[in-house]
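Protocol step 6 of 9: fold each sequence in the batch and record its structure tokens directly after the sequence line. For illustration, a two-sequence batch is reproduced in full.

Sequence one:
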Amino acid sequence: MKKKMLLLIMICSLVFPAFAIPTASAAAAPVVYLDGEKLSFNTNPIIKNGSTLVPMRLIFEKQGAKVSWNNTTKTVTATKGSTTIKYTIGQKKAAVNGSTFTLNTPGEILKGSTLVPLRFVSESLGNSVGWFNKSKTVTISSASMLKAKVTKVTDGDTITVKLNDGTEEKVRFIGVDTPESVHPDADRNTSEGVVVSEYTKKQLLNKTVMLELDAGERDNYGRLLAYVYLNGMMFNAKLAEEGYATQMTYQPNVRWVDLFSALVANARSNDRGLWAYDGENGSSVKGTTGKLVIEKVDYQNEIVTIKNKDSKTINLTGWKLVSVKGNQVYTFPEGYTLAPGKTVYVTSGKNAKAAAGYLKWTTANVHNNDENDPAELYDMNNKLISKY
């Protein structure tokens, strides 16, 4: 029997927030990156009523503004170049060069620290702000950017754009690498690559974006290397956060390397995107049918150890355990369930038995002491859940 192929199913219905930062769990303190630097605050940023509030002085000074503070009126005045921001803590109105703006959430004094709205401060100083809800990450970029329209999506990490002067450029995203979908060597193309390519196309095609360049302008193929922004959000980073890309560093373009490293790690640890379907060496695949893991295959004693690492009981009716090399399939009994945290041992050969916690496959040898014989676990929809 041919080895079953992994069927990748992803829902790509993300809507990018343009201006408001969504409400997050109170337990999750946002992480802030400014031009690639992870900022360290004496008091943790908080999310309140959909806005991220951060300690006042650091967020102003890190963005090049000079700050003065009137302790009597609780008013901050910040100046950078020709821009002057004046704001009284607790008020919903702030002034930028004399013009009045209404804030989504007013600043406040918390445990002796003065907190101000991050987005308002940063955008008033001319910078781009992005919010990544799943990882609770904020990015601020002060870089000069090129405006462009996306005219073609080649694959998940490569697009073609038309700049304002009419020039067309092929753009390769910095910092990330997505699975192949249009490689000349067809064997390198994958179903995952097609999924990610469609995701990028859905989000970017015919959209106006901003391009941030780094130290190295082009790669060996002449493609423009860039961080691509949509409504203030860096799309390169969004691919990493969603689990649709691995990290790939283009030296000397390392401005945001720490951000990509953190987002990829976050996606992987939370089983998002491509990482939800890795299923290798005892890791699990998270899906609608639950999270089961093949923890061990004892080839000599013919015992396969399977554990339920989900938070719910899983009905294994119609599930199958496959010995790939031997072309043998075990189908779990009708109505068989496995409770959270519990383990079942599927046995074969001379040790085959049916008892509490044990299932009998066959008295014949299945694995033949062959450690090169993978074991695969499929759910009732023939979706690969775990592989050892």
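Sequence two, same batch, same settings:
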Amino acid sequence: MTAVLEPALRSPGREEDQDAALRRAAARVLLSNWTGAATVPSRTLYPHQWSWDSAFIAIGLARLAPRRAQRELETLLGAQWRDGRVPHIVFNPSVPLDAYFPSPDFWRSSGAGAASGAPADIETSGIVQPPVHALAAWQVHLADPAESRRRGFLRRMYPRLAAWHRYLAASRDLGGGGLAAVVHPWEPGLDNSPVWDAALARVEPAPPESFRRADLDHSSAADRPTDLDYGRYVRLAADYRDHGYDDARTPHAFALEDPCFNALFIASEHALAEIAAAAGADPAPHRRKAAEATAALVERLWDPAAGIFLARDLTTGEAVGGHSVAGLVPLIVPGLPETVARSLVATAQGERFGLGRVHLVPSYDLTSPEYDGNRYWRGPSWFNTAWLVHRGLRQHGADPAADALREQALDDARRTGFAEYVEPHSGQGRGIRRFSWTAALALDLLHRTPQGEPAR
């Protein structure tokens, strides 16, 4: 399908025709990956529902079918645990166990997670992903407010989203400083980033014979995390499971405060204030929490000398060196001090990320010896983080840079057949093609003028 799709999108023609062709192709990706209740990231490598994928997908789906976008989020939050957590995977029971690892029989959520409130009738993972969901729900509502109000979408979403945020603010404030911690590299979404290397080195990997990777059946080993990475991922997940997914009881060998995760929490807390007001609740607590978390983010994770936000390792208490795209994502935070925002824009445009001179936004420092432009989150440019940085640039008045990034993202989505990610220097598509959030976020960018306003 990709081989046919890409030349068609590259054919010469008026700009409006190119955009219309891209819009139709993106719609086909989302329709083909729709299961009837949710959208899988990919029919091959990722055959279940993923948490932050569904949030980004809903933002794009709202441009096509607002009611289906609402359903996307409703399905995800229908698997929420009683303690408030939103699991990072909701498993489709019709998919064979060997199609993806770790599979439901590894996580055993309905049994091992029962005391923490896991659903008895839906199998999920036990870890979480970045909390972009309230931001997505608000964007979905804005796409068709009349339909949203008719279905009571925000009134039904608000208590679930509020519970999700309470879980993160209470159970996950492992450092006691007002920020949420991640307890597995899959939680911040940047799985094998070099930022995690030192913390992961302390983890004894699970024996290689104790698991079989299904991802290598669909993707090149050169593009994916290593077997050693996976052994450590499995060990951390198994330890969390064997402690009942209880954040207080688990002796977390990996616990860090990540700037991207917390920036998305803050942006979603602002969105949750808008949702609360629209649903007839008090928005003030959410605005207050957003302000407190912003202050904590700057105090605990901002490094003015590096010009970027850094993760903090809660085991050592130290900031983690290395320039990751996660450190640029706080540009999306409303109310971020302007001196910080200006420094972040300068860092993005500097030699470490090459904004405007390479494709999208590299996931890791181009000048670092750890950089690998092909291997997952060790360097490749991803469409979702580009969308977040674009939003942040626009928010802080860096319109020329935002305009260029928008055009680059649309061109790369068109040219690669909606690749999962691209090599920053060549722009070559890597990973899976026809990837759902790439198609969805292209739809959202298409729907906006270069100035960031919704298109007619």
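Proceed to step 7 once all outputs are recorded. Observation for sequence two: The chain has one domain: 2-446.
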